[in-house]
Write a structure and sequence with these properties.
The complex is a heterodimer of chains A (296) and B (336). Helices cover 69% and strands 2% of the residues of chain A. Chain A is mainly alpha-helical and 296 residues long. Chain A has a domain of 200 residues. In chain A, strands 1-2 form a two-stranded antiparallel sheet. In chain A, a hairpin with a 2-residue loop joins β1 and β2. The termini of chain A are far apart. Chain B is mainly α. Chain B folds into 2 domains: 232 residues, no CATH class; 83 residues, no CATH class. Chain B has 15 helices and 4 strands. In chain B, the strands form 2 sheets. Chain B has a two-stranded antiparallel sheet. The longest helix of chain B has 26 residues. Classes of the chains: A mainly alpha (296), B mainly alpha (336).
């Protein structure tokens, strides 16, 4: 029972970690929390479902298309909306409140679009990436799709860390997040990097949408999963990519244990309690760097 | 004190109070219900703007204090038997006390971190409202009798409207005095730059904690006024959606300015009513349109509606260049 809870917590934690990575990427590039990330997750799930149902596409093609769709959408949103709010300032922090409201508005838009489609009134389910009978490890039961989730999440994380450390674009992204002004001075196209970061982050949210939709019930309101991503990234410190992964897994496990040992009612409030606790006790999280002073 | 109320401000406050007495005789009931909601939202938004627009603290916990105000007033009246005139201030003080306690850890946090911590607090508070069965009635909600103020029976939209309007007028007066006081100046200094404020000898943490407390008291007062025209409360009213509504009112209207916030309250408050009047077949698009308007408004006027209007007003009020030249020319020459 205990081990089983830990195991399924790790599986869910991997998905939370992907959402957290998406949030942190955006935070590092634009200094804003993307409250619409949960809706990106939802859109990817629905897009996948409709691509399968209406166009009878191959599953692999569907996955790629759905993720690309969300990525392009995220990048476009940055280009058209946020870029205008930030203006030509290299420091985005000053525009925090309008940007947060813009992402909240975006989440309404996306939810609204999905609600307009008649079939979304009932609860739908996306077929999983890997089907088949569950695998038994001693007493533990493991669904094949759970194994798939962990494998995909780990692959994505490895790809991200390789990309950030060994490619020129990845290094340019990191430079932009550390000091946009200096990055612009040495010839990095800061605005294009910001758009790229949004595209990449939206793709991550899209991947978690494809992974999560078979496990959760799909409704237009499933975007509330963003709070789990936020909690995971807060545990990790909100600026650290490694922290996100650890934070996601810790959150997944803690949630399951709370469900068993405290009460199932308390599961819903766990992420918020964790956010509060971590921010009060250790504002930089477990892996976060000290908050930089950006403006005097 | 850096100057009392200006004539036009006093006139505005009196106008609000006066409207409270006149409008109930003119408008139909549904308009008055919407009006009551708008006035309550105005108190909420002005309180949140003290933190957001004046002190520059991106705090999200406001709706929790609103809830404490509602449940506090309702429970003190119905269970303890304290009259409304005392119950509302006590509930507002409880909200303020909790805001004071929140203020200490919150004063250490900045920007997004503060927003997330306070948002998490609001969600936790909503969870408490929803699950604390013996006190809040749990998911079924809480019914409470309409308050009586010195023999004046409220409870309907028509009878509550004057009282709500007077409370808003008092809140407006208090806010105006606050923003003109030394404390108000300190708040603005912290918003513009915490470091410069600290160097100038302002106790940043103290001012922040006071701002949190006052803002929570205002939210508590808003909660008290809510009980004047509603007879039922349930935790669903105190969720993220309402928080977002208040936040967008401030941002769309123009944060840091009372007129701007009131602007935003009217525009965003009436938007759902306008959208509801759309043809039946388009009704499903309601949420989409609301979101699209929100994004468009933010993108095209990041300073809010008031940010569009204000520069034009000031340009008109400023002396014309020709007049300035004239004044310089006719100035008596100073002989050395």
């Amino acid at each position: 029972m205990f081990l089983q809870a830990v195991l399924s917590g790790i599986v869910m934690g991997c998905v939370y970690a992907l959402i957290a990575l998406s949030l942190v990427l955006i935070y590092k590039s634009t200094d804003v929390v993307n409250f619409a990330a949960g809706e990106f997750v939802m859109i990817a799930g629905y897009a996948g479902l409709f691509l399968l149902d209406w166009f009878h596409l191959n599953y692999a093609v569907m996955v790629v298309l759905a993720i690309v769709l969300v990525a392009v959408f995220g990048a476009l949103f940055e280009r058209t909306a946020l870029n205008r709010i930030i203006g030509f300032k290299y420091n985005a922090e000053a525009a925090l409140v309008p940007m947060v409201v813009a992402t909240i508005g975006l989440s309404f838009v996306l939810k609204g679009v999905v609600r307009v489609i008649p079939s979304t009134e009932e609860v739908l389910r996306l077929p999983p990436l890997f089907g088949g009978p569950p695998v038994f490890l001693g007493d533990l039961v493991l669904q094949r799709q759970d194994i798939g989730i962990v494998v995909v999440a780990v692959l994505v994380m490895v790809a991200l860390s390789l990309g950030f450390n060994f490619t020129a674009t990845g290094k340019a992204l990191r430079a932009t997040s550390q000091n946009p002004r200096a990055a612009a001075l040495i010839g990095i196209p800061v605005r294009r990097m910001r758009m790229l970061a949004w595209g990449l982050a939206s793709a991550l949210a899209g991947i978690s949408g494809i992974l999560l939709s078979p496990k959760l019930l799909m409704t237009p309101d499933m975007g509330s999963v963003v709070m789990l991503g936020i909690a995971a990234s807060i545990i990790g410190g909100f600026t650290s990519l490694v922290g996100c992964v650890v934070g996601g897994i810790v959150l997944g496990v803690v949630q399951n244990l709370v469900g068993i040992f405290l009460s199932p009612q308390a599961i819903a409030v766990t992420p918020f309690f964790i956010i509060m606790l971590v921010l009060v006790v250790r504002p930089n999280g477990l892996f976060g760097e000290a908050m930089r002073l950006k403006k005097v | 004190m850096y100057g009392g109320l200006r004539g036009i401000e006093l006139a505005g406050i009196l106008l609000v109070a006066l409207a409270g007495f006149i409008l109930p005789h003119l408008l139909p009931g549904y308009f008055l219900y919407t009006g009551n909601m708008l006035l309550t939202y105005a108190i909420l938004a002005i309180g949140l703007d003290l933190l957001l627009g004046r002190t520059g603290q991106f705090a999200f916990a406001h709706i929790a204090f609103f809830g404490i105000g509602i449940y506090g007033t309702a429970l003190l009246e119905s269970r303890v038997g304290i009259p409304f005139v005392l119950a509302m201030p006590i509930a507002a003080c409880i909200a303020g006390a909790i805001g004071f306690l929140i203020g200490f850890p919150a004063a250490r946090l900045k920007a997004v971190y503060l927003a997330l911590a306070t948002y998490a607090f609001a969600e936790c508070a909503q969870w408490v409202f929803r699950t604390w069965d013996p006190v809040t009635g749990g998911p079924d909600g809480l019914r409470f009798p309409p308050p009586v103020i010195f023999g004046y029976q409220t409870g309907t939209d028509r009878s509550a409207f004057p009282v709500v309007a007077i409370i808003l007028a008092l809140v407006l007066a208090a806010t105006l005095y606050l923003t003109k006081s030394k404390l108000g100046r300190h708040m603005c200094a912290i918003r513009d730059s915490e470091h410069v404020a600290a160097v100038s000898g302002i106790d940043v943490r103290r001012v922040k904690v006071i701002a949190f407390t006052v803002s929570a008291v205002f939210a508590g007062i808003a909660g008290g006024t809510y009980t004047l025209f509603q007879s039922f409360i349930n935790a669903d009213v105190l969720g993220a959606a309402q928080l977002v509504t208040v936040l967008t009112m401030i941002v769309i209207g123009g944060s840091g300015s009372i007129i701007g916030v009131l602007f935003g309250v009217v525009v965003i408050g009436l938007l759902p009513e306008v959208l509801r009047a759309m043809p039946q077949s388009l009704l499903v698009w309601q949420e989409f349109v609301y979101g699209a308007i929100l994004v468009a408004a933010i993108v095209f006027m990041p300073q809010g509606l008031w940010g569009l209007v204000k520069p034009r007003l000031e340009a008109r009020r400023a002396p014309k260049p020709a007049r300035v030249a004239e004044a310089i020319r006719t100035q008596p020459k100073v002989s050395l």
